[in-house]
Amino acid sequence: MRCRLLLFGILLLLAVGRGMGYERPFPTYLALGGIFPINSNEGRRTPMVVIDHEAGDRRSGLLKASLRTAVLQTSYTHQPSAVTELKYGGRLTLFAEGSGGDLYRKGRHLTEKTYTGNGAAAHGTVAFYSNKPWSVGLEVGFSRAVFSRGEKTAVGYQPPPAYSQGLMRMEVRRKNLFSQSGFVSLAVESGWRLNWQQWALDNTTDRRAFARYAVQYEDKVVWSEFTNTHWALFAEGGRNLDLFSGGRVGGFTGVRSLAGYYRNEFRTQSHVVLNVRQEFWFAKDRMMWVWLDGGQVQLLELDYLQEAAGTRQNLLGIAVGFRYDLRSLHGLPVFFNYGHGLITPKDAVEAHRREFAVIVAAGF
């Protein structure tokens, strides 16, 4: 359910270019850069260090390993038969579990309630292709997280206690919907917190068990050799969610991207987000893209949000970006993006939402 569209789009452009099929000319990609709020005292800067590696194929065994700044993840997938596929892997998170530095109330960054978190997770998945292009996947996971005070945490504030969590997930996916690149998926998750305790940001609701659901639809239209349109629609929600299991919407590097806003500014009980990206290619190594992001979010019902808890907000963001390959440096690609949030929360501390990203990427 969780992805970062800016990063995914950049890696996809490196692998695919203007074509419709997926081709990965290099097994390893490296991206370096950062995302910076413009003229803001509330938004947080995000350094970006990304290493993405693939080796092998699904039939004989596909190894994937990635580093996303503070998250190290690896998985191994193999296909023992034409109708089944097995995948298992793990994740290690440093200083980012629960996004304890991304806590906002009406646009004000709650530095006094920040915390750091480390976590580890393991998961195993089996997918069944009962009738291609349909597939059904079943996943079981387990994670453990511990938390501590950050540099700006207020004196006397208690961070969340350590806890463990189990998760079961089922996903039904349909590929080649309406076109070769279209697909739709429906996912349902059920989780258990194994040693849950109440803490300062939460309320008194019993949150030992939680559930999530997600519907996703993506497609792409190639108008010509030089123009194409991508869109992705996400509808996600659940019950008994908290800061770790709930949605996170906002910013280029938010778990659910919505251009221009603070990183993970909106912690949601449910949300619907539409991302539309139009690409204009001037040459095989020069292009411009325009994004239009919109959505509606319902905030989590947690005490720290006070009167904003559970409220709904409409959001709209636009972005423009460029890919410019430096031909003098053997085609080293550089990406520039500017995002502008057009609708800000009522009574927000800052009336504007703007961010800028610069990323240099290479394949090996």
Topology, please?
Elements: H1 5-16, E1 28-37, E2 46-57, E3 61-68, E4 71-81, E5 84-93, E6 104-105, E7 108-109, E8 115-131, E9 134-149, E10 163-175, E11 183-193, E12 209-222, E13 227-239, E14 247-249, E15 266-283, E16 286-299, E17 312-326, E18 332-341, E19 353-363
Antiparallel strand pairs: 1-2, 1-19, 2-3, 3-4, 4-5, 5-8, 6-7, 8-9, 9-10, 10-11, 11-12, 12-13, 13-15, 14-15, 15-16, 16-17, 17-18, 18-19
Verbal overview:
By secondary structure, this protein is mostly beta strands. It has one helix at 5-16, and strands at 28-37, 46-57, 61-68, 71-81, 84-93, 104-105, 108-109, 115-131, 134-149, 163-175, 183-193, 209-222, 227-239, 247-249, 266-283, 286-299, 312-326, 332-341, 353-363. It contains 1 helix and 19 strands. The strands form 2 sheets. The protein has a 16-stranded antiparallel β-barrel with strand order 1-2-3-4-5-8-9-10-11-12-13-15-16-17-18-19.
Keywords:
single chain; 364 residues; mainly beta; two-stranded antiparallel sheet; 1 helix; 19 strands; 58% strand; globular
How would you concisely characterize the structure shown here?
By secondary structure, the protein is mainly beta. It contains one helix and 19 strands.
